[in-house]
Write a structure and sequence with these properties.
about 230 residues, alpha/beta, about 40% helix, four-stranded antiparallel sheet, 8 helices, five-stranded parallel sheet
């Protein structure tokens, strides 16, 4: 299912800029221009958002009230929230996180950095929900950091395991090189992108008979396709 982002932001230029960049990454984006509308959209059981980008300085029902309400509702209490605000003091950042937000960005901000943080939060959320993976040949225990291929344990480095996890989380969808670099090495990584290709090659070598589960999408990135049997998660 396509992940969706709800942007609650009264500045149309900011909202449209964020929407444009996120849609380029394959995410569905909805915009609410005030707190009341944002809360109504967030609690819609027919299309709940995967993550909320929330401005604090909203007309009417402000961002603090929206965040508190979302965290008090059972259906929205676990939806990740990234707060945007013009207030940049340490006290304001702490207050935002104390509200239950997952991350915090001060205005003005880089849209590319926000997109990277959104990807990171979505990845963490997906990993928290993913305890294990199993198919015809490969089994992964994410809690015990254990990988077994055709009955043989596969020893991976922490980076290799993080890379495999990021691929499994995006199962059957293309994970771009940049997305994998952001998720595994961090959004501020400035090194050679070929580092990723080297790690994928080593990961495949260690997976042996399960190496074919990682497909190369030429010019784009990689896709985890499993081992030709519907996985049991």
């Amino acid at each position: 299912m396509q992940q969706s982002i709800l942007i609650i932001e009264d500045d149309p230029d900011i909202a449209e800029s964020v929407r444009y960049n996120l849609q380029r990454e394959g995410l569905a984006v909805n915009i609410a221009q005030n707190g009341e509308q944002g809360f109504k959209m967030a609690t819609d059981p027919n299309r709940p958002p995967s993550l909320i980008v929330l401005d604090l300085m909203l007309p009417g029902m402000n961002g603090i009230e929206v965040c508190e309400q979302l965290r008090s509702e059972p259906e929205t209490e676990k939806i990740p929230i990234i707060i945007l605000t013009a207030k940049a003091s340490e006290a304001d950042r702490i207050a935002g996180l104390d509200l239950g937000a997952d991350d915090y960005m001060a205005k003005p901000f880089s849209v590319k950095e926000l997109a990277a943080r959104i990807r990171a939060v979505l990845r963490r959320t997906s990993e928290d929900a993913l305890l294990s993976y199993k198919d015809e040949k490969l089994s992964i225990d994410f809690e015990d950091v254990r990988v077994v291929c055709c009955g043989n344990q596969v020893k991976l480095t922490r980076k290799e395991f993080a890379l495999l996890t990021a691929l499994v989380v995006s199962q059957n969808r293309v994970a771009t090189r940049q997305k994998l670099l952001d998720n595994v090495w961090g959004y501020d990584y400035c090194g050679d992108i070929r580092t990723l290709d080297v790690h994928v090659r080593r990961l495949r070598q260690k997976l042996g008979a399960c190496a074919a589960s990682i497909e190369t999408v030429v010019g784009v990135g990689y896709r985890f396709a499993g081992n030709h049997q519907r996985p049991v998660l």
